[in-house]
Design goal:
432 residues, mainly alpha, 16 helices
Length: 432
């Protein structure tokens, strides 16, 4: 499971590394890229939901060695992914200013964000396709190759970021636009590599007859389990993005501090999502093979691992707070905000680790997807967003109080998540 976790972690690192490498430049460009990356975050919510559905079926089909059904999964998911990728390409390439104005009303930040969004727009196409192929590689025991692709993309992105952002090796210093160019090139390279490994090494093939056909029977089965997941990720992703909108209208210092805190939080959260995805495949394989008792045992062990991981990640982030603040180029007020935000993110990560693993990995492995949709939707839309909005815009409470309220959602969910976990409704074979 460790290689699968690492591979998912590497894919999620790419958009995060852009903002990280802009920290040493100026506050506005870093803030712009962090806010613009929220679009990639929403895109990844769609991708995560669809690929979780793909993992759900592919893992169980692989457990029963049903390659024909896996090829149907591959074709159907690709039919979903391509239009979604082109939609995000279109809105970022055609309407970058409108997108940035959703997040902030600061002209300087908007100007940087427009260039970044337009330059990075092509990455959505490459990234969507690459992740579908990489997901199938993970489900067919080609985790090593998939991990190498993910690691290679990250190192290529970091190297190109250094070249294009700072103007190394004779290249012009492009700042935020350079980060976007680096991301696009690395996603293209990752897409080519994933397709190459899939074509020449994967035992499952892309059947164009399945790709072109409606697959009505499979679509009904797939939709039954994945529609709640897509709905959940969409509603949660929009709500999470709106929390950035709230902070984005509380001044430039708040925007800058939140931008760096979000990068640090996302960087650590990448591991949480990766643990959930890898754990879901492990549990799903055993469920598909009919080993329900073993799948239950694995689910319990992975959940315990998420508790320990969350605690360690929270401590790790808290210990890094002075270092992060020291190496940022912020105003004194923004630096003070950042210190408090990072410490608050430490407890947030503890809850995120558990919920991402259980709701995002273990429950879907056995088709238990409705609970997560209800839990996340109620928490974000009926508590976090209303309370934070009233605190920020009606009561005019301080930035740090609003940020604290925004980051309560993961802890609020924990009691009901553990209660539902112990019902073991997720211990179920859904493909036979």
């Amino acid at each position: 499971m460790i290689p699968m976790t690492l591979q998912n972690f590497m894919f999620a690192l790419i958009p995060v590394s852009d903002a990280v490498m802009l920290v040493v430049l100026d506050q506005d460009s870093m803030s712009a890229v962090s806010l613009a990356s929220q679009v990639m975050f929403v895109f990844n919510m769609f991708v995560y939901a669809i690929l979780s559905g793909m993992n759900m079926f592919a893992a169980q089909y692989w457990g029963s060695r049903d390659k024909d059904s896996m090829e149907k999964v591959q074709a159907y998911v690709m039919n979903l992914m391509i239009p979604i990728s082109f939609f995000f390409f279109a809105i970022t390439f055609i309407l970058p200013e409108g997108v940035m104005r959703i997040f902030t009303d600061e002209p300087a930040i908007i100007a940087y964000g427009i260039g970044y969004l337009r330059m990075v727009s092509f990455a959505y196409i490459f990234d969507g396709v690459a992740q579908v192929f990489s997901t199938m590689l993970k489900n067919t025991e080609l985790v090593k190759q998939s991990t190498i692709i993910g690691v290679g993309m990250v190192f290529l992105n970091i190297g190109l970021n250094a070249v294009f952002i700072y103007g190394l090796c004779g290249a012009p210093a492009m700042g935020a636009n350079g980060a976007a160019l680096a991301t696009t090139v690395s996603c293209l390279a990752g897409c080519i590599a994933a397709v190459d490994v899939f074509v020449f090494k994967c035992p499952v093939k892309m059947r164009f007859s399945y790709f072109a056909s409606p697959l009505k029977d499979f679509r009904k089965q797939f939709s039954k389990y994945t529609t709640p997941m897509v709905t959940n990720q969409l509603l949660w992703g929009i709500a999470f993005t709106l929390t950035s909108v709230i902070i984005g209208h509380m001044g430039r210092d708040a925007v800058a501090a939140n931008a760096i805190a979000a990068v640090a939080k996302d960087l650590v959260s990448c591991f949480c999502y990766a643990l959930g995805a890898g754990g879901g495949i492990v549990v799903g394989n055993e469920l598909g093979a009919g080993n329900l008792a073993l799948a239950k045992e694995y689910g319990i062990k992975i959940t315990k691992l998420s508790v320990v991981s969350g605690l360690l990640l929270g401590i790790f982030l808290a210990s890094l707070t002075p270092v992060i603040v020291h190496f940022t180029n912020l105003t004194p007020t923004a630096s003070r905000y950042l210190t408090g935000m990072l410490l608050m993110c430490s407890y947030y990560i503890m809850g995120r680790s558990i919920n991402s693993t259980v709701i995002g990995g273990i429950f879907p492995a056995g088709g238990d997807t409705i609970f997560g949709m209800i839990c996340d939707t109620v928490t974000m839309w009926f508590f976090i967003l209303p309370v934070a909005s009233i605190a920020a815009f009606v009561l005019k409470w301080p930035v740090m109080v609003v940020f604290f309220l925004i980051n309560l959602d993961e802890m609020i969910k924990l009691p009901v998540v553990f209660h539902h976990f112990r019902k073991y409704k997720w211990v179920k074979n859904i493909v036979s």
